[in-house]
Structures are given as structure tokens and as C-alpha cells.
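Q: Got a minute? One more chain.
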Amino acid sequence: MKKFFLLHAFVFAISFCEGQNLVPNGSFEETVACPDLLGQAFNALGWNASWNTPDYFNACADSGIVSVPYNQIGFQYASFGNGYVGLAAIIPVGGNINAREIIGRQLSNPLIPNTKYYVSFKLSLADSSIFACDKVGLSFSTVPFYDDSISTTLINNHSTVYSSAIIYETENWVTISGNFIADSAYDYVMLGNFFTDSNTDFDSSLSHPITFYSFAYYYIDDVCVSSDSLECDLANSIDAIKTKGSLSVYPNPANDFITVQFNTVTAASITLYNSLGQVVYARNTAKPFANYKIDVSGIPQGMYFLQMKNRRETLQQKVLISH
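A: Always. Here it is, folded:
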């Protein structure tokens, strides 16, 4: 009887483990140390640069270069918690053929061949990108790729799950998801663009106020691989964008005034930040409101970030002021 109980407990433990997210620290919350410069993906516990120098961003950073939500690449809150990573998915200028950044780590358990798995991760285009592209995805390997001399073999026009459309979204996070049958005991997961430049569609017509970087740069968060479909976020497809509440700002771009609209009447604080995180406008409304008008005629043109906070939630929107 005792032996039966132990065997039963062991089988239960395996089943329980298989149903969990096999990507440890998939939301990049656990740190080796807070990042202070770009290129420090290794400061996200368990993660490494599989090719070139992907970046790690966390709200714990003292440096505005790699902090959250403000950083040198743009402005974005984490989909979950305080951290996320970022990488260049394609660099279509300067003769950098097939140049990109890839990040990876070891799974908590190898995949079981002939088993169905569900995959999802969140993606958001950085404000500084003057390019946007498709094909950002997730791939598996039976061996680690932590050396540039061998990682070029990763660009093989194959990815287990990837964005089949160009991702333009900078305000919200887009969920990339899918499922597959494992054909090997894969032990490592990687994220990036695994397709050649000639097999990657990109758009060079973007015009952002912050244009430091001549590549398509994406933030990544909430990476999940599981045999349980409920474990990974499959509620949103690639084209379904998870909105941040019910705050709207118009007109956007703005010239003289903007109107802040909320779907319920509430008292709140309203703060407008510039791209450096400096407050350029702040107001606490003593009375509940559904619409609030702000004079921005005296504010220099550029990209700003409006935050509305009440007792229940904090909502954000990007605002472009263009006189």
C-alpha cells in the first residue's frame, strides 16, 4: 500500500509539472542584478544572449537608459510586473544582412516528443523604431546557442510560433500564440527573428518623434510554454490587442488642447510626462469627471505619456503634441 501511494504521488507530480509554464522567469521579474546599461540580458535570471546583445529593462534600474516604463528605447509598462526584454528583430540598413538579436534560456524540463504544447508571448514595438516587421517568434533547440560563431545557424527560416503580420503596436502588448507537437526533447527556448532578411517583411515608413535606432526593435514579455492550454494566454490572437483600460485622449496628435475621456465618472490625478520622465503637467481633480480638457499649447512638440490614476487603477496613453 505504501509503495502504491509513493508511485501515485510521483505520477501526480510529473503531471502537475507538465501542466505548468516550462519557461522559468518567463515574465523577467527575477533579476541577477538591476540592469544599468543596454546589452545586459544576463541580468534577467536564467536568460542569456543567444546572439548579439539583447537588452533587459526593469523598474528597479536607477538608470533611465534601461528602466520601466521610461527607457532609452521608448516608453512601455511591463505586461506583468516590472520587467521585460528587448531586441532588434531586423536591421535593414548599413549592409547588416541577417543581423538581429536573439535571447534564450533553458526550460525547466525538456519537452516530451509527440506531446502537444501551447506557446504564447507578448510583443510591443518600441517608440524609437523607424522600422516594423513580422516574423518575431519563438523557437526551440536541443543545445544551447550562446556563441555568435555558431548562432548564425539559427537564421534558418523556421520558427515554432511567430508573428505572420507586421506588428506596429506601441501602446499595448500584442499576444503571439499557437500550439505544436514536439518532435524532439527540446531543452532550450529562444526568441527573436529566425527568418532571413529576404523572408522578413518590414515597413520603413514609420515616423516617430524619437528615431535614434535604424531597426525594428521589439519589447518582449510573458513567455509561456506549457502542455496545458489554460496556463498560457491564448485568449488573444496576434491581431487581438489587449487594451489598457478605457481611457482615451483626443485629438491625438494634439495642437492646442487635448481632452481626456474616461468611461465612468471618477476623481483622479492626471499627469503628463515627457520622454525623459519629467512631469510637464499634473492635476488632481477634486470632483469626479468623465471628460477633462488640458491646454497643451505651451508644451513643446514631441511624444508625451499621459497617466490617469484613481483609487482602483492606473491607465496610460501616449500623446503626440505637434504644433
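A: Residues 248 and 261 are 5 Å apart (CA to CA).
Q: Perfect, thanks.
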